[in-house]
Amino acid sequence: MTDTETAEPATGAPSPAPDFSGWTCPAPLRGQRRVVMGHGGGGALSAELVEHVFAPAFGGRALSTLADSAALELGGARLAFSTDSFVVRPLFFPGGSIGGLAVNGTVNDLAMSGARPAYLSCGFILEEGVEIALVARIAEALGAAARTAGVEVATGDTKVVEAGRGDGVYLNTAGIGLIPEGVDIRPQRARPGDVVLVSGAIGAHGVAVLSKREGLEFEVGIESDCAALGGLVDSVLAVTRDVHVLRDPTRGGVAAALNEIASAASVGVELHERALPVPDAVANACAMLGLDPLYVANEGKLLAFVPRAEADAVLAAMRAHPLGAEAAVVGECVEEHPGMVVARTGLGGRRVVDLPLGEQLPRIC
């Protein structure tokens, strides 16, 4: 049988080759009657949940860009507005805690639109029976992270659920910030010819959380990279405001973030696999656990898509900042294979880097 023929029907004539262009994976939302863990993982299942349930129900122009934060016009000012919920387990992990994660996750979403974060709200959902001392530790960590990030927790809420109906402590934070004049950063602005940069080594957060949760020990300790990226973004914008896209690769890692951008802008992305800064300890841990660092969550790194003419200056500005010392050029936008991410391997081959279905590591943020 040739590549363009299938089994012959009763007439004896060969059937036409199947057209794969309209095929979809049966696993995502339309094949699921109930929510599964993967729907919260930032991959294909999450995207289908948003596309088929939330976006049609909510509507609205501001939601349509589906960026890390919404850019809003209000009273002559441009505001960035974002919200996020945090259900990480364990509550404290090497390099951070749910409190610091809640602050940094939200201020980073604001910073990815070029905004200067200003105010946060904070909601605590507590399980009956949790120790007050633990709640106080989390609150102190959250307050310290807010001060470090230069934002104020301006309002909040507390709810308590019955014992057995929660997991100790969940947090929700929302934030607002001002977008400077002349800044237009969103996924749809990626263009062929753009250079793709990453601000530093990837994969540490997901591996750090997993190691603590599962009681794993590695030869070299791995700590979360959890950090507020507003200062790093300010350094980049001080060099040029012609930044097309910024994205912090959290759930689903670098792979999910690049796929989302490629899809939103209808461009292809060529990734230089060998140029990706992956610490040896993270690479070894991922190899032992059967994980791909490209899909592991980060909480203190960003991806930047910038015009080629600005790439050297942006890279230098990143490397001059403490949170961007290991910044690197890792790829470029291309006209070929729009909506798809392709990695050039160290052996000279190519492989498709798909959007993950769910998430390799649940409960990492």
From TrEMBL:
Domain of life: Bacteria
Gene3D superfamilies found in the cross-reference section: PurM-like C-terminal domain, PurM-like, N-terminal domain
GO aspect biological process, one term: protein maturation
PurM-like C-terminal domain mapped to chain residues: 191-337
Species whose genome carries this gene: Streptomyces reniochalinae
Cited NCBIfam families: hypE (TIGR02124)
Domain PurM-like N-terminal residues, every copy: 68-179
Name of the protein: Hydrogenase expression/formation protein HypE
Region (Disordered): 1-22
Signal peptide coordinates: none
Family that this chain belongs to: Belongs to the HypE family.
Gene this chain is encoded by: hypE
